[in-house]
Amino acid sequence: MNVLKRIRYEITYLQMERLVKKALKDKQFKQFYIKFISGNDSVRGIGKSVALARLSAKHGIPIVTTKARENDYLLGITRELPQYFKKGLPTTIVYNENVFRGRYIPYVLVDECPTGMFSKILANLPADTKFIGYHYK
Description:
Layout: H1 3-25, E1 32-37, H2 48-59, E2 63-65, H3 68-80, E3 92-94, E4 107-113, H4 115-124, E5 130-136
Parallel strand pairs: 1-5, 2-3, 2-4, 4-5
């Protein structure tokens, strides 16, 4: 990986890590810790998924994906960049309407969730679950 790309990945990781730490420390009820992204191609390849996979492995917070293909991509990151996953692997959950039934999950990471799926996931999670991640404007 070239130096500029690695620096960009680290910047993205540190931005998201700041949001995760804020969510973990926040005692007040705030449900969303979201970094909004625009839908253009300028945000492609800046390490968003890598950052979430690293944070999932570090903090044990599951990443909610909307498709099995996204799940496979996130797990593939661990094979492509093993230096970031020496202590553990990310936890992923492929969303369906029953996946959260009977489970309490205090935090979830969301990777580039489209608006329609975002509201569906929100409707099926407990009210005090905190969302951390990226969302299209």
